[in-house]
Every structure is written in structure tokens, then in C-alpha cells.
Specification:
The complex is a heterotetramer, with 2 copies of chain A (about 375 residues) and 2 copies of chain B (about 400 residues). By secondary structure, chain A is an alpha/beta fold. Chain A has 3 domains: about 190 residues, HUPs (Rossmann fold), CATH 3.40.50.620; about 60 residues, SH3 type barrels; about 90 residues, Translation factors (Elongation Factor Tu (Ef-tu), domain 3, Beta Barrel). The N and C termini of chain A lie far apart (about 45 Å). Chain B has 2 domains: about 140 residues, Alpha-Beta Complex (Aspartate Aminotransferase, domain 1), CATH 3.90.1150.10; about 240 residues, Aspartate Aminotransferase, domain 2, CATH 3.40.640. In chain B, about 45% of the residues lie in helices and about 10% in strands. Chain B contains 12 helices and 12 strands. The longest helix of chain B is centred in the middle third of the chain and has 39 residues. Classes of the chains: A alpha/beta (about 375), B alpha/beta (about 400).
Chain lengths: ~375, ~400, ~400, ~375
């Protein structure tokens, strides 16, 4: 098979590419340059798109003896991921940019281009398994390493995309990958994992949003509308957040207060007690199906964050192609904009974007702002 | 790589000539710092000076006009900054730098540095759609306030599209006002007749590895009466204009390569031009809507004989390069200096190309080892490659709708 | 020259190691510009990066801290000017440059340039009679106004008299005030244990041809968080800090030479020190009134093991050099950089020597090819040579009365 | 023989060294660096001591395959030649620095040092012949090329110095030397001869003296003491000079006026008609003998300038070891400070420095100023 290996400069994608080579594929390495102004080595901390990462990726490709190119996808990334990220926050939603990147860049723009250029598949270092269902169809499953499992951010892939996806690390524990990298002489073996949002090099999401959206001061209120404090921009707050509210005096009942709701349009941040965060159902829009689209009622589990716990769930599609997901165990702090990914055991069934949540403490579905 | 390679990237670097390799290797076996006073130092110095004389003779210069450097980039930096600083020190009003808009980065970036850090006022001289600098614009710029011009720098021939610049017009325009002219002749040597004295230039940059010589060595040929502020300070080995222990083996190799390429030029210029014309015909035959950039005449006085530069509408240059590379054909999307992410070529943009066409471009460059087989390999590959690249190009410019 | 040569001038340049010659020659036979995107470009790039990693590992640095240059002079210029300009741009008050008075010209002259042309205020740090920099003076200078210091530059070991500088004290003094320190380690590598990370230095200069590597290549090792303004602008090949097509063969050779010399150092340092001690004893035996300059201890922590430096009262260094040269013995009157006319060494003058004693001096430097036979040859020659040179010295300093 | 070849960087000394090599000598080339601040190649016209000359000399030595060194004699040259030159002018005398250089530097400091270092002789590119007198003594003779003959400036050499002097060009015409240089591949073959005073690169002796001595304005007078004009420094005038006097109006008798006398101490320049310049005798001091010192009265010829005509002369030594030279044909414009060199046919007998002149128009010897 002719395989295009997306190489980020990290240890995972390097070992993934190495395994693709070992498997006898004809592999070409590509580093995706995603930053509009690729930071020179010397003026910045690490992000996923620095020159240093490109260099590390190239060194790994050298070692594997495969051709290597840098593809400039900065324009696409900006339009499809970064601007989406900012717009979602501006609308009071909490997006997952990695998921968006997989959906629109890595397994869309890159995959399409690769196929056009004659490649059969794109290989990445994601921890997830693609399993042959026996009937020619392929299924997406959780990785063998539960701590590293990335099936959640791949829950947006369609069956078509899965056909051309290669995740050679799905069966392996992260520790073993590092060890293997060392054994292979890959210089990136000891390189730390990247955790934060790649295009926010310093990890300061609030600062990034402030620079992107400007200040928008407003009030911090409780469920009754009583003003408890001020903020410089509602988008800097995340549903479920406890620290950094700066409210000075404690709640009258003495219980810690959490962000319950963020309304950038009204410039309002609502806070309240922890139990008010519990969500018992979500309404998802824009569903994506990794296999056959959901037919009747689904019984399985749902996951609402990249590293969140799966909870037992029931789901059904509505006529308007939205998805109602009942969470059989309440989940704390779900925000509109997050993805809900449905699992049947380890198999990813599909995903949708949370549009509204239904609080355990309420009987009404709460709308996200559009 | 086990595939047989077809090398069509001589403008980036050239294979070392066998005789040069021999000269360099032989000299590397011999000990000696050319600044040392004892026998082995003198022997090294002798090699340096004989190399200087041979190189000077080959380029129509005097030995004392040759300043050896670590390559074309250093020579360009020395010329641009050194001339600016000297002229500016002599008369503080001289702050204007007139440079063609299609210079190599080794000139472009020093000029920008002078603007950013040393208060130079830069005027980028426009070029015509073939990339030829507008001499009338230069004349007007000079005439507007001749006393404020520090220097003019216009390359001998463009590294991307191969256009030969009207240097004698540039020189006479500048000299009318007593303004010195520097030219980056890195691409010209070996491809065109190059005679420093006849050119009237005040300073000229030469590089080793573009003419079958070693990497890491070049020269600035500079008239004796031209003042230059040094860039590298230290031992003052090259007449106090350039410091650093002389790289005797590389200098010997540079000289041998320049001599050989200048000797061959009358014949090889014709040979490469004929080969290049075949290449252009083959590409346009296989891809009728390909656009030949640069001067279409193919005349040595207008275009480098080894240069062919195309835009392939609907393709990404990156895709073409990948596909050709997979077939063992090596070429370039432009200058090889960019650190990975392709920027639309400033040369094509200056020539009026839109960013899309600029990104759809590919340079094939021939040199001393080029053969008919190279052209034939490209002729076979280019059609299918462009077809594929077009698919990828369309895919890639389609915005994903969410 | 048909006389058998005794080479005692390793501080000027060293014979290329056989394995390095092989590496360089092999790579010269292969085509490739390390910035090209196709297969041969990638192959060249691979060589560069593997060389970078090996060199970094050998010097206790990270690969990303290595900037390849055209040699020690360029690296020194880049460090001194680049640090000054960056620090000065970040805070215009930072105009002071603290440099030892015994720096190599490749540091000395850039520092002077900054004073002459860029308003730097230079303070030359005094040295003791052995040439060791006065750390108390440095501390006082720093403490006087720490916010105005742009950088400190103190060489690792002196090229003339071999004195090892108290670098860790220098670094800790400077870092107390957040001032970066550069060190020219050109003479130290291969002779002393050199570990960049352990040194605490912010930037360190390394050269190829002083350690059995090729001429025309060196490196500045510079910590990632240190800002440097580039010296050579252009393609930005070395992380935008240094431009110019990478000289792949030379870089491979540099790396191989540094690796080899660092590997050998623990053994060769001892070997050379013993050889040097024999040489000193032989010279002082033959010429009892010869003065050994520099630190007399011979301890590796105080003096380069390959260095022996004498003054021969009543002699001209030039005469000694001529007479030894005629006997096939090659040494130096000091730095090999001077263009012909001997100036009294600024190093010896800074150490307190009068100009006459300074001109009466000679350096013998040992390196990886030095043998007992070299020392024996010198031991046989030095007595009669000094005797003759004294005659000439007396003659020459006698003023002709009219 | 071990020969030290002084190589100026010019064609003559290069060919001289080449011939010494051809003659089977063991030759070492030395370039004498005479300028205190050796001009870099780029900031100055040619003088004898530029870096370019050193380089040319080295190239010639390279080609001959002989060792080559630069000897720094700047200090000696400054003290013995340049300062003497200035002092002589300041005293109203007209010195010949080449002669002084040969006397005190080339065949003194250099020769002495060479001998000490084990050399047997110093070789230069002077056009003059050293002839073996048959009795072990050596004689200095005029060169075969009368146009280039430099025996005058060598007239200061003692018999001892001559024993160790080698002038391989004495038998050759200048044109042949150039041709030979070309044939030998010496790059200096086409290099123009240097003519002027080597340490005054721009040839402006008056300017050099003004810079060295400062302005000393005074009067230009005629023989009667009538003030005819002003000058900025008497040292800028040379006995015999006609042009550049700037006197405006012509002499009353209409005849051109010449400088007759220069008295810097009195800041006085005396002018008068040409015939007042004629000198019929000179008194020389500090005689130097190329062979046996003059015994009785000498009959032969005398030369008073480097390129002057020899005239028939008689000479005798006085008790105070001065030399009285009667010029049997008057010589125009002789100034104190010049050397008078005595010839017996082509053989140089010796020389002395002119201290006083006796004008044809007067009966009294005129004293030079000390």
C-alpha cells in the first residue's frame, strides 16, 4: 500500500510511520505546517507547528529512510480549526479543536490530497484501533492503552475516511512506544507529549481568546441573577470551572461555586453549586457515523470529553437528524460545543456536537447559543 | 533511493567536477594555515594566491580584486552591507538602496536588514513580466536625488526564472551619478560570458557549488578603489575586508571550478540552451496549458541557457515535486533556501503572477552534468504527474464545509 | 621543502584526521543541497542533522543549540555582535561589553567594531601575569551597573600562552546579574574536557581545523533561549540565525573531528601534557634564561596541555622562526592571523610583558599528530638557534649612528 | 652561498632573487616592511611598503620556491630615514632618502642581521655592478643600463658592505629584466616602477613636509633682500626650483627666477636668475669610501643627483675629513644635503654629503645651515 504518514515531530507519529514501513508499505512522510507564521525555533515555546517539530519529523523520516515533505495547510487550518474555535467560544460554546482538525484537515484535506496523489491511506500516531469487521467494513475501536485512548477525537470520522486510515499504535501502550522509539534510534523518543491546544503555544487559552475577541466585560451572577462580580470576557470561562472566579466573598451557603453557564452575547457568567452542573441528557447536532448510521434506539455508552469517563447512555435520532442522548449517570459540567461520542463496547458508533444540555436539576433542555 | 535519479536542479547545487574533487582532496591532505609564516604556511598561501590569480583571470578581474568568502551569501552580505556602510560613512545623506525586486534572498534580506536596522531607504526596482528590471525606473530613481543613493544592486541573472538583467544599462545609469553597482552573478558564471572588467561592475558575487566547485566557498570580486566596511572582523586575512582562516582546499577548488566553467561556457552555453529548448518543447507538448515563465526567447543574452521555469495551472508545486521525486526526477519549486513551508515566490509575484500561479510553479535547471536522458525522463513523466497533481490541487483548494 | 618537517604549530591549524578526510571526501562525491526538498536534498540534510546530533552530544549540548558557521571567526562575530545587538535592542541601556584583554582577534576586533560603530562601551578585563582574567575586576564591573551590561566574553583557553580561564567563576558572576556569557573555545576542544551544558555558558565558539577537522567550518553553540541577531542574512538555513547553503561535507567533517577529539581528550590531554613538559624541560635546559610564559603549573585545569610559550631575551621572534624554519621546525610567534608585520602580542602586553620581551617570544603547540621525535628535534635545534638569533637581535636593535 | 634577497614587490628585486637562485645560491626572500602603519591595500596609492607590495614579493618568492619572510624595519626606517629626511629639510638641506636607506637600513641593519643569522650576502635589485678587483677586493661600478644606473644611491656603501652585496641586475637592461620576469611567470613583470619617495605615497613632498613641520610662513626675497612674495614654509622649496613660486610680477630684467637658497630657520626663500645657480665646487662632509679611502688628489668625475650628469671633477680630503670637490664644469642647482659621488670611470670611488656649495658667481663658499 502507498501510505502517507502524517508526522508531527512527536514520538507517536514517528513510531506509527516506522511501523507502517515495517509492515511493508511504501511510506512517504509529511509534516503538516499548520501555523500561519511558523515560529522560528528561537522565538517561542513549543507548539505542534514549530520549525523544531518539522525538523524532528524530518529527522525521524531520515532515519526510516522515507521521503519527507512539509505540506503547508496553514490556510486551511486557520479557516477550519482556529477560526471555528474562536467563533465557538464567542458563541459561548466549548469546542474541541483536535476533533475539528481530524474531521476537516487531517482526514479531509490531507487525506483527499493524498488519495489524489496516488496514496492509499493516511497513517497517524493516534491511539485507536481500526478493526476489520469481516464484511469489508472497518470499525473504529478504543485503543489498548486506556490512558492514551484517542478514539474520542476520531469519533468524527466517517466510514469512508476510516477505510483509508491507519493507526499503527492502537494495540500498544504508550510506554512501549517510547521504548520502541528509543530502540529504533529515534531522537524524539524522550520528547514530552504535547497536551495543550497546539496553536496556543503558551497554553493561555483565555489570553488567546482575549487577543482574538477583545475585552467584553460583564457580570458574574448567581442563578437568581444577583451580581456577584465582574469579568473581562465571558469566553474566558468554561462550564464547570471553579477556580479563578475572583468573587471574594463565599456563597451564603458556604458551598463552592462553579460556572454553570457562559453567555458571551449577554456578557454573562452564571455560577452556582456543583450539583447544578449535573447533566442527564444532551441534544447533539451534526451527527457523524463511523459505521452504519444509527437506526433505532442505541444502548451503550457516551463520552463527552477527550479524557472523560464513558457513562451508560441511550440515544436516538430525531427527524431533524439531531441526536438525543440520555446519560444514565449524570455527567458534571457539560458545555454546548463539546462532542458526544457513542460507544458500543470499545467500538465507536458515531458522534455529534452538543447543542443543548438537560440538567439533572431541571426538566427543560437548555439551548446553546447560536 | 534506489531509483535512478534525474537531476534537474543545478541552480540549487551542482555535482562537483572530478578535477575539482581531485584538487580539493589533494590539498586537504596537506597541512598549512595560509597565514603561518613557516614553510607549510607559505605553501598554503601559494595555493591561495595562485587560485586567486587563476580565478581573477577567468573572470576578467585582477587578483587584488578577489576577496574569498564562505560562499555567495556571505559575499552578497559583504557587498550590500559593506558598500552601504562605507558609502554612508563617507556621506550620511547616502541612505537609499536601489535593488531589483527579484534579487536572491542573500541580497534581499541584507537589504531589508539595512532598512530595518540601519535606516536605509529601500526602493525595489520593478521588473517587467519577464522579470527584467526596469532601467527607466532606475534612471528616474537615481535622477530624483543622486546624492542620496548608497548603492544599486541588481543580479546578473535570476535564479528562479533565468532572466538575464540589462546590467550594462544598469551600470551606466548608476555610474552617471557615481553610484556603485553590485551584482550577484552566482547563477551567471559558467552559463553566460562573465567578464568583471568589461561589465563595469563595482562588485560581483561568485559561488563555488553552483559551478561544480565545493560548497562553503565563494568570492566577492570588488574593484580596488571601492571602499567596503568589513562584515567579519578578526585576523584580517583577506586584506582586512574579510577575516577567518583561509580555507585553502576550498579556495583551490573554487578557482578550479570557475576556471573550468568559464572555459567551457562558450560551448556549454550553447549545449545547455539546446537541451533546455528540447525540455521546454517536451513539457509544453505534454502539458499544453503549462506556462513558461521568464523570457521566452531562449537567447543567451536574455535567459540562462540552463533554466526552464513553468507554472502548471491547477497544480501545487509541492505536489508536482513530490510526484516527480517519486519518479526519481529532482527539481525545485524555486529557491532552495526556504525552511520548509513554501511561500509564493517573490520573483513571480514581482513579475505580476498571482499567488496561485506562483505556487503552481516548478523550476528545471540544467548544468554541467545534464544529458539528453535527463530531458527524456522528464518528458515521459511530466504529463501523468501534472494530471495527478491537478486532482490533488483541486482537492486541496476546496474549502471543507462544515 | 625537502627537509623533514617538525610541526609544532597545532594551535594555528592541525593536520586533518584520516577518518575525517574520508568522511569529507566521501560526502563531496555526493550531490545535494541540504535545503532542497527532493531525495538528494534530504540525503544531504540527513548528514547535516546527524552531524549536528553527534557534535552536540560530544560537546554536552542539544542539537538545537548548534549553529554551523564558516569557522571560528564567523562564530565569534555572530556571538559578539549578535548578542550585543539583541540585548541592546531589548534594552537600549545595555551598551557595556566586558571582554578579557587577551581574547583572540576574532573576538577582539568585533568588540572594537561595536565600540567604534555601534556605541558599545568596552571594558577590557585585566589579567594576571599568567594571563588569567581577574574575576574580581569582572565582579566589580558588573556590580557597578549590571543593567547596562550587554554581554561578557572570555575565551576558554588562550591561544598564545595557553592559560585556561576561570570560566565557571566568570559565568556565575555574570549570571548573578542575568548577563549572558560567550566563550571562544576554539583552543580548548580536544585539549580540555569541554561540556557546554556543564559550563553554564550561553554561547561557545568551536572551530574545525584546530581539532583535525576541515578548514572553513565551525559552530556557535548557543542556548535556545538566547536571542541572537543574525550576521549573514538570506535563506535562513541555520534557524534564521545564519544563512548560506549548508556545507554538508565540511559539517560532516567538523562533527567527526570534534567527536574524535573529544573522545581522545582524556587520554590525549595527558599525553600532550607529558610531551609538553618534556619540551619545556628541553628548552629550558638548552636556553637557561628562556622565560616560560603563561601558567607554569602545567595542570590541565590551568594550562592547555599542548601549549608551550617562551620569551628568549635578546632574540627577535622573527629570527627564531626563520632559523627554526630553515631546520624544518615549524612554530609561531603568536597568532597566525597577522598580515605579515609582527605587532607585539596584545596578550603578552596585557600580561605585563614589555614590547621587547613580547617580540622575543615563540609558541610551540602540540596536537594530535605530535610525537616524541618532534620534541627531540626542537631540543636539538633550540640552543644553537637562540645563540644565532641573539647575535641578530643585538645587531638589529643597535641604532645606526650617522 | 646563503643569500638573503631583499624583495620589494617590484620586478627588479624579483628577477634579482631569481638570478641568485639560478646561480646556485641558497636564497631566502625578505620583504622589508618600512611603513609604520602599513597601508591596507584599499586605502592608498602605491608606496614601497604597502601590503600589496608584500604580497607581490611573496608571490615572487613562492614562484622561485624560496622561503619568504617579512621583516619589520619600520622603527629603524622611521628613525634613520624619515626623521632624517624631515630634519634635513627643516634645516634647509635637500636629502636623498634612498641613499640614506641603503646606507643605514638595507646595507646596515638588514645586512648585519642577515650576517648574524648566517647569511653570506644580501641581494637587491639595484642596477649597479660589483666587480672583483682581482685582489679579493670588490669594486662598485655603474650599471650596464645607463638609464637605470643606481650606483649613485649606492655610493655610500663601504668596502666591507660591498663584500656582502649582490646586484644581479648590473649587467642587464631594464627592458630585458621585464622580459625575463614575464618569461619566468613573475606576476610583477608588468608592474610600473616606483619613482617617488616611497614613504610619501601621493608624491606630494611639500604636503608631507607641511604636515610634518607645520606652517612656517615667511618671505620670498631676491638677492638684495627685496621681498617679492610670501610662502607658507621654506622647506617646500628646492634650490633650482622655477615653478610654483607664485611671485605674480616678473623680474625687472624679465628673466625667469629660480630658487637660489632656502633658509627655513630665517623662513627665507631667496630667488634669482638661472646663472646664479651654477655651482663650481662643493664641500662634502661624512665621506664614505667604496674602496680604499682617497689618498691624494682625485681626478675623475662627480655626480650630484641620482639621475644627474656626471661632470669632470677634482677632489681632495682635508684634515678634518671633509672633502673639497671642484666641479670642472659648473653644475646648476646644487643644494646642501645632496650627495656628491665620485667616479673613476665607471667605478665608484666614494661619496660625501654636500655641506656647502661654491657658486660660480661668487668667490665664497656658501655654508649649509646646521
Amino acid at each position: 500500500m502507498r501510505v502517507l504518514a502524517a508526522m508531527s515531530g512527536g514520538v507517536d507519529s514517528a513510531v506509527a510511520a516506522a511501523r507502517a514501513v515495517d509492515a511493508g508499505h511504501d511510506v512517504v512522510g509529511v509534516h503538516l505546517a499548520l501555523a500561519s507564521n511558523p515560529a522560528s525555533l528561537r522565538n517561542g515555546a513549543r507548539g505542534c507547528c514549530t520549525l523544531e517539530d518539522a525538523r524532528d519529523a524530518r529527522r525521524a523520516a531520515d532515519l526510516l529512510g522515507i521521503p519527507f515533505y512539509v505540506w503547508d495547510l496553514a490556510e486551511r487550518f486557520r479557516a477550519d480549526v482556529v477560526e471555528d474555535f474562536v467563533a465557538e467560544y464567542a458563541a459561548g460554546r466549548t469546542p474541541n479543536p483536535c476533533l475539528r482538525c481530524n474531521e476537516r484537515v487531517k482526514f479531509a484535506a490531507v487525506l483527499d490530497r493524498a488519495v489524489a496523489l496516488g496514496f492509499d491511506a493516511v497513517c497517524t500516531g493516534h491511539y485507536a484501533r481500526v478493526v476489520d469487521a469481516g464484511d469489508g467494513r472497518r470499525e473504529l475501536h478504543r485503543a489498548a492503552d486506556p490512558a492514551k485512548d484517542q478514539s474520542y477525537v476520531l469519533g468524527v470520522l466517517t466510514a469512508e475516511q476510516l477505510q483509508r486510515a491507519l493507526f499503527p499504535l492502537g494495540d500498544t501502550l504508550k510506554g512501549d512506544v517510547r521504548e520502541e522509539a528509543g530502540r529504533r534510534g529515534l531522537a524524539v523518543a524522550g520528547k514530552p507529549d504535547s497536551h495543550d491546544v497546539c496553536f496556543i503555544a503558551d497554553g493561555d487559552t483565555a489570553g488567546f481568546l482575549r487577543r482574538s475577541l477583545g475585552a467584553a466585560p460583564g457580570a458574574i451572577v448567581d442563578a437568581d441573577g444577583t451580581v456577584l462580580g465582574r469579568h473581562e470576557g465571558a469566553y474566558a470561562y468554561t462550564v464547570g470551572q471553579r477556580r479563578g472566579l475572583g468573587l471574594g466573598r463565599p456563597a451564603s451557603d458556604g458551598r463552592p461555586r462553579y460556572v454553570l453557564d457562559v453567555s458571551p452575547v449577554e456578557r454573562r457568567v452564571t455560577v452556582g453549586p456543583a450539583d447544578a452542573l449535573d447533566v442527564r441528557a444532551v441534544l447533539g447536532v451534526r451527527p457523524r457515523w463511523c459505521g452504519p448510521p444509527l437506526g433505532g434506539e442505541f444502548h451503550g455508552s457516551a463520552q463527552l470529553r477527550a479524557h472523560g469517563e464513558p457513562v451508560p447512555a441511550r440515544a436516538r435520532r430525531t427527524a431533524a437528524d439531531t441526536l438525543v442522548v440520555d446519560l444514565l449517570r449524570p455527567v458534571r459540567g457539560v458545555a454546548p460545543g463539546q462532542a458526544v461520542v457513542l460507544y458500543d463496547g470499545t467500538r465507536v458508533v458515531g458522534s455529534a456536537t452538543v447543542d443543548r444540555v438537560v440538567r439533572a436539576s431541571s426538566d427543560v433542555a437548555e439551548a446553546g447559543r447560536h | 533511493m534506489s531509483v535512478p535519479r534525474t537531476y534537474l536542479d543545478h541552480a540549487a547545487t551542482t555535482p562537483m567536477r572530478a578535477e575539482v574533487l581531485e584538487v580539493v582532496t589533494a590539498r586537504m591532505r596537506v597541512l598549512g594555515n595560509a597565514s603561518s609564516l613557516h614553510a607549510s604556511g607559505r605553501a598554503a598561501r601559494r595555493v591561495v594566491e595562485e587560485s586567486r590569480e587563476a580565478l581573477a583571470a577567468a573572470l576578467g578581474a585582477r587578483p587584488s580584486e578577489v576577496v574569498f568568502t564562505s560562499g555567495g551569501t556571505e559575499a552578497d552580505n559583504l557587498a550590500v552591507k559593506g558598500l552601504y556602510r562605507a558609502r554612508q560613512a563617507a556621506d550620511p545623506r547616502r541612505r537609499r538602496v536601489l535593488a531589483s525586486a527579484v534579487e536572491h534572498h542573500a541580497v534581499l534580506d541584507p537589504v531589508k536588514w539595512l532598512a530595518d536596522a540601519e535606516e536605509a531607504q529601500v526602493e525595489w526596482l520593478p521588473v517587467d513580466p519577464y522579470g527584467r528590471v526596469d532601467v527607466a525606473a532606475l534612471r528616474a530613481s537615481l535622477a530624483a536625488d543622486p546624492g542620496s543613493v548608497a548603492l544599486v544592486t541588481v543580479m546578473w541573472a535570476n535564479n528562479e526564472v533565468g532572466t538575464v538583467q540589462p546590467l550594462s544599462d544598469v551600470v551606466s545609469a548608476a555610474h552617471e551619478h557615481g553610484v556603485p553597482v553590485h551584482s550577484d552573478a552566482v547563477q551567471a558564471v559558467g552559463q553566460l560570458p562573465v567578464d568583471f572588467a568589461a561589465s563595469g561592475l563595482d562588485a560581483m558575487t561568485v559561488s563555488g557549488h553552483k559551478v561544480g566547485g565545493p560548497l562553503g566557498v565563494g568570492a566577492l570580486v570588488v574593484r580596488r578603489e571601492v571602499e567596503l566596511v568589513p562584515l567579519l572582523h578578526g585576523g584580517g586575512q583577506e586584506r582586512d575586508v574579510r577575516s577567518g582562516t583561509l580555507d585553502t582546499p576550498a579556495i583551490a577548488g573554487l578557482s578550479a571550478a570557475v576556471v573550468a566553467s568559464q572555459e567551457e561556457q562558450p560551448e556549454s552555453g550553447q549545449r545547455l540552451a539546446a537541451l533546455r529548448d528540447d525540455l521546454v518543447a517536451a513539457v509544453l507538448g505534454a502539458v499544453p496549458d503549462a506556462v513558461l515563465n521568464g523570457d521566452p526567447s531562449g537567447d543567451l543574452r536574455r535567459r540562462l541557457p540552463g533554466n526552464a521555469h513553468f507554472s502548471f495551472p491547477g497544480c501545487e508545486g509541492d505536489s508536482l515535486l513530490l510526484l516527480l521525486d517519486a519518479r526519481g526526477i529532482e527539481c525545485s519549486t524555486g529557491s532552495a533556501c526556504s525552511a520548509g513551508v513554501a511561500q509564493p515566490s517573490h520573483v513571480l509575484v514581482a513579475m505580476g503572477a498571482g499567488p496561485e500561479l506562483a505556487r503552481a510553479s516548478l523550476r528545471f535547471s540544467l548544468g554541467h552534468t545534464s544529458t539528453v536522458a535527463d530531458v527524456e525522463a522528464l518528458a515521459r513523466a511530466i504529463g501523468p504527474v501534472v494530471e495527478r497533481a491537478r486532482l490533488a490541487g483541486v482537492v486541496n483548494t476546496r474549502k471543507v464545509s462544515a
